[in-house]
Structures are given as C-alpha cells and as structure tokens.
Amino acid sequence: MSPIGDPMPSPGVAAVDRALSILAAFEDAPEPMTLAELARRTKMYKSTLLRLMTSLQEFGYLVQFADGRYHLGPTPFRLGAVYQRSNNMHDRVMPLLRQLVADGTESPSFHVRHDARRRLCVFRVDSQHSTLDRVEAGMLLPLDRGAAGRVILAFDGEKGEAYDEIREGCMAVSFGERDPDCAGLACPVFGPGGKCVGALSLSGPKPRFTRDNIKAMTTLLLKAAIRLTRALGGPTEALDGVLAAAADDARPSRRARR
C-alpha cells in the first residue's frame, strides 16, 4: 500500500511504506486515535497495524495512552528539533515574520512543498488582529488552493496562463480558495541558483483584504522576501523589479501632487 496522499506505488520497501503511512495518518488528526480509526485512515488490517506499530512504539515514533488510543511519540519531535538546528531556517525566517506583524500585516507564514499535492506550513506567526485564519505551523495544506500553494506551483514550472502571471509578477492573491472566509497573498523566496525554496504569505479574514491593504502588505511582503532571499544566497533581481514597479504605482502623479 502506498503512503497516504500518494496515489502512485512506491518503489521502496513495502513494510517501510506501511509504517510511514501510519505516521502520516496523524498529520491532520487533532486528537489521539483508536486502532479502529487508524485502520480506517490507513486502509490496513488491524493485525497488520499492530505488528508495525509495535516497532514504531519501540523506537519512540508512537505512544499508546491508558485509554488505548495512539498518538505520535517523542522521536518525531526530537528529529524536528535536529532538523531546525541543522538548517537554521528558524533563525532566518521567524524574525522576518515577527517584523511583518509589528508592521501591521495579516498573519505571516512560510510554506514549502511537501509532496505532489500538498504544501507544509513550516513557520507561522499570528497577527495582532482579534480574528485570525486557521493556519498553524506543521499543517499540510493543498498546493492548488491558496496563494502560497500557487506560488510554489508556479515556480516549480506548472503550466498555464495564471501561473505565467504569477511568475512574471512574483505575487499571488487568493480570495476564498481554501477557506471561503479568508484571503491571502504570497511571493516566492529564492535560494542559490534561483530555485524557489518556499513561499512567504500573509493570510487572514477576507474583509480585511481591501485594495489599499493589499497594496501596503504587498510592499512589506516583497521586502521581507528580498531579505530572506539574500540571507539564503539567492538572486533578488526579479523581486527587486516587482518592488520597484509597486513603488512606482503607489507614487502620486505630478498633477496629483500640485
């Protein structure tokens, strides 16, 4: 059986694929799950699950609570901490997200591609507004819905006029694509060689995404993306050009200034 969310057969070891499918079942599970719930999610027999889960528990990937339900154990958390220490993205991204919030934007996030259909919200800081959209670090979200997902698809070479426009303007805006009450805008972040390494986004309730607010937040988001791209050793020419064009659009005409 292939892992959850991956319709293609895996060329790997079947037992490993099944074990990883069990772990993947917890990605969008808000609470611990019973064996029956895991069987429904993974489409595995309970006897198969129990054999695999014994090994996962032994190595700390899963824990079983007193009521019989299962959840992720300490090992995934430990590996996540090792990952953050090794690539120090946290120290590069989080200050930029906090500064965006201090500047009055909607909630900023940093997303990367997870697989063929989903993106991962790696970092997130809530805005200072009283109402927020429902996004948290660690969430898996669709690639084909939402500004951040469409930016990632565009710079990964997705074909289509809409994606051509995103590549040209280094910006995507979405209204109600993933959540009918929310909106967002996003731009790419580049690494060495000009490869898009992720998307910076701002998201929140749709009524606050007015034309004036979008213009103001676009400028702030582009500046943050340029700073992060430079920190990662990527080229900023495309982002610089879009930022300069946005500044020209925002500048009042000579007649208006008189």
TrEMBL record:
What is any one GO biological process for this UniProt entry? negative regulation of DNA-templated transcription
Note one Pfam family from the annotation: HTH_IclR
Source organism's superkingdom?
Bacteria
Q: Which residues form a coiled coil?
A: none
Is-annotated flag, keyword Transcription regulation? yes
IclR-ED domain residues are 75-234
UniProt key word DNA damage:
no
GO molecular-function term, one example from the UniProt record: DNA binding
HTH iclR-type domain ranges (all copies): 13-74
| PANTHER family for this protein | HELIX-TURN-HELIX TRANSCRIPTIONAL REGULATOR, ICLR FAMILY, TRANSCRIPTIONAL REGULATORY PROTEIN
- The protein, known as: IclR family transcriptional regulator
What organism is the protein native to? Bradyrhizobium nitroreducens
UniProt lineage: Bacteria, Pseudomonadati, Pseudomonadota, Alphaproteobacteria, Hyphomicrobiales
